[in-house]
Amino acid sequence: MDSSPTHAIPMALAIYGCELDESLVFREKAPSFGITPVITAAPVSASTIHLAAGHRCISVGHKTPISNSDLLALSDAGVEYISTRSIGFNHIDVAYARSVGISVENVAYSADSVADYTLMLTLMAVRHAKYTVRQVDIHDYRLQGVRGRELRDLTVGVVGTGRIGAAVIDRLRGFGCRVIACDDRETVAVDYVSLDELLERSDIVTLHVPLDQSTHHLLDGRRIGQMKDGAYLVNTGRGSLVDTEALLTALENGKLGGAGLDVVEGEDGVFYSDRGAIPIEDPVLLRLHKLPNALITPHIAYYTDHALIDTVVNSLINCLRFEKGLKHG
């Protein structure tokens, strides 16, 4: 992605949900684009919408949903464009935003960040890393039958072959495993099959499709039941691609061998916060945490230095292009 400045008239940009590391990059990069950043760590809400007054464009994070009432208030404040610093849109009702005169656009960032992480979770799942580390932490160094599997002996099914799915496939080839894929568009040199066939043939299934009405609970109880006995599931997409109750049942009864989950249903309000002294009330998440074959990380696959710079720069470019009338969401 070309990150060179696009010269334009000076403008101010309200940037919501901006944490310290993002803030430093925005302050470093924005001046070269002629943009003055107005930064807040707070998400869009009734108490922060005033910061958008006089701004046609704003930039938002993905960690907090934006309500329709807040979208309407943003429109009333003069906002016409939102650049979300994410690939997904599930935290914004894009159709409603459009109905009140606001275009919404995502950003591209390094697909390698999520692809690398997907491979890490995959390897950790098939080598029982969570269980092994837990045992070592209590100084139990016995093997105890936690024999792993080698990727070259396995079939990996990649659901979704966009930028990230394609990057995952590229990495998998280096391990010598069999790779099959499912997508409406056949954009990668790989054996494409139906979702049903992919689930039946794969030893590992990894999800890389966007979350929308058509993909909500893409893997429900029926489809999880189609998976091979002892298969593994890896999800670095969105939590609600999977029916978590059905996944829990399959992990607990041994239908599935394990799961590597960077995203889970109900993560809002839990992930990105310190809950060490605040009880987690979600019983499903608590059950997942207890399982030795369910590895959970806090929606962090995208979080690399390279991807952070991509996200900030491309958000600036999106807003600048909108201001110049070059691109509309």
Structure overview:
The chain has 329 residues and is of the alpha/beta class. It folds into two domains: 11-109 and 304-323, Rossmann fold (3-Layer(aba) Sandwich); 111-296, NAD(P)-binding Rossmann-like Domain (Rossmann fold, 3-Layer(aba) Sandwich). 33% of the residues lie in helices and 16% in strands. It has eleven helices and twelve strands. The strands form two sheets. Strands 8-7-6-9-10-11-12 form a seven-stranded parallel β-sheet, sandwiched between helices. Helix 8 links the parallel strand 9 (204-207) and strand 10 (231-235). Helix 1 (20-29) crosses helix 11 and helix 4 (111-126) packs across helix 6 (163-173). The longest helix has 19 residues, at 305-323. The radius of gyration is 21 Å and the shape is globular. 41% of the residues are buried. The model has no long low-confidence stretch (mean pLDDT 93).
Name a few traits of the molecule:
329 residues; Rossmann fold; 2 domains; alpha/beta
Tell me briefly what this model is.
The protein is an alpha/beta fold and 329 residues long.
Oligomer: single chain
Helix content: 25-40%
Task: Report the top-level CATH class of the largest domain.
Answer: Alpha Beta
Low-confidence stretches: none
Largest sheet: 7 strands, parallel
